[in-house]
Amino acid sequence: MLSFFKNKKNSEDTKKKKSYESLKKEAEKSADYKQAFYQNTHTGVKFSLHFITTIIDEKIIQENILPSLLSKEFHDFDDLKKIVPLIDIQVSTDESEIEQKLYNGYTLLTMDASNRKFAFIATINLTGRKVSQPEVEFSVVGPKEAFVESLKDNLNLIRKRIPVKELVIEELNVGKITHTRVGIIYIDGLTDESNVNTIKQRIRALDFDQIMDTSFIEQLIADNNKSPFPQLLDSERPDRVASVLVEGKVVVMADGSPHALIGPTTLVEFFSAYEDYFLNFFISSFLRLVRLFSVTFSILITPIYVAALTYHYELIPKDLMATLITSRQEIPLPPILEALFLELTIELLREAGARLPTKVGQTIGIVGGIVIGTASVEAGLTSNVLLILVALAALASFTTPVYRMGNTIRILRFPFLLFAQLWGLVGIVFCFCLLMGHLLQLTSIGRPFLEPIYPPRFSDLKDALIRFPFDKQAHRPQYLRTKKPVRFQPKEGKRKLDIDE
Questions:
Q1: What angle do CA 274, 277, 279 make, to 5 degrees?
Q2: What is the mean pLDDT of residues 6-20?
Q3: Which H/E stretch holds residue 111?
Q4: Which of 1, 13, 170, 408 has minimal Cβ neighbours within 10 Å of its Cβ?
Q5: How far apart are CA 253 and CA 350, in angstroms?
Q6: What is the pLDDT of residue 139?
Q7: DSSP per-residue letters across 28-74
Q8: pTM for this one?
Q9: Where are the beta strands (DSSP E) in 390-452?
Q10: What is the mean pLDDT of residues 252-273?
Q11: Looking at residue 215, what DSSP letter applies?
């Protein structure tokens, strides 16, 4: 019996040794894998260091690790934490951790005297860009900090704004190959646990080989990944993320991504810029209404033009009809082809300007728009009236503060154009009904996407289409089901103390 256990132990050691050796052979194929062998001057203990040079800071090895291991009393792994002046030192017997730690910036320490133990010493080289101004969600008023690609730096920006122990950050490794660190952030005792558990469950269930950005996560965990509408709000602003956390929402961040995902969210939030909260509520409410009008105008103006000229001449005023007849009398194309030509031209200019370098892209967009627009009118391919309407529609679509929703608005114009050509204004109404039916079914982390419009939540309308003053927003959004729905007592919010008090 004793021999059986001894043989079993030897076979396990052999298996581990073979696994370790095979890992070394695989690592040695890369030029940035290095190993070095040393001997302690006092005790004569032999040890070796293994690391990937491209992801570690070699100064830490030369200044902190080697001087301690070579000159101080070093007998076993138990002495490491005593003699090496570093915090993150882990001793393990689990060989499966070697690959993960080695390729995440740890230095592997092995000893000839102990084949069953390993030590991992953190020597990570933290390189990346510094905190800069927001580029997508830029605002004139308010903080000028934006997230970067380092998860640690991003969490620092959030912790700085919410310095409470209730702020919980749970980390998961996602991606079979990339093993991307993903952080799930929420405020314990405030956020609804069902929202947190739903997001954690969906992220844990991801079966994907690479997670390079939070955009991957947004597409994989969305309630309906076939919808053109984004169901999680993304933001690059730490102040906005801190604000939604205090509201009771959940935030997802990934290492290597400068954007955070916020959920649950609603449709109206995509048309609210965070700068609205830094302005007077009259001004911010007016700007929100302007954005909503702009989006509606951007989607419907070209389809209405096509429907009116194709089916509904009687709806056009006589004075305007004369202008339209004059502008179209030499146009050989029907209104639908004329509209599609200009819409696709605008999209081509927009895409070309986005893909080219900044200075060249701006020049292409301005010069190309002027040249092509003028030439198409003079050549008799399009009318000058439609050119003005398409240009205004493109300009109106830029008022959407969230880039993902702006892309959705651009796409929606084409189905409306198709239905306008088929059935005129009836087709536009039918397409609008299809759109509303889709939005009514859409959810974000199981919460209704059209809230507070449907289901109606009158208290949540105080910060939806328009923004009420802060002293009127005493309650958190109802659809979040927070554990603390009351922010402050309404009477205290209205009270203003005099000097004598």
A1: 115
A2: 47
A3: strand 106-111
A4: 1
A5: 29
A6: 83
A7: TTSTTEEEEEEE-TTT--EEEEEEETTTB-HHHIIIIIHHHHHHS--
A8: 0.87
A9: 443-444, 447-448
A10: 94
A11: H
Least confident among 103-107, 318-322, 400-404? 318-322
pLDDT at 97: 86
In angstroms, the CA 24 to CA 225 distance is 41
Burial 76-111 (b: 16+ CB within 10 A, else e): ebebbeeebeeeebeeeeeeeebeebbebbbbbbbb
Task: Tell me the CB-side half-sphere exposure of residue 88, using CA atoms within 13 A.
Answer: 11
Write the single-letter amino acid at 52. Answer: I
Alpha helix segments (H runs only) across 312-402: 318-328, 335-355, 358-378, 384-397
> For residues 419 and 431, is the Cβ–Cβ distance under 8 A?
yes
Question: By the 8 A CB rule, do 38 and 66 touch?
Answer: yes
Neighbours of 208 (CB within 10 A): 15
Contacts of 312 (CB under 8 A, 6+ apart): 424, 425
Closest CA to 292 of 139, 48, 466, 142: 466
134 exposed, middle or buried (CB, 10 Å; 0-12, 13-18, 19+)?
buried
User: Any idea what the Cα angle at residue 332 is, between residues 328 and 333, rounded to 5°?
Assistant: 90
Phi/psi for 57 (5° steps) reads -100, 105
Number of neighbours of residue 440 by Cβ within 10 angstroms: 14
If you search the block for the tokens 């740890």, which residue do you land on? Answer: 106
Q: Report residue 285 as tokens.
A: 């409410």
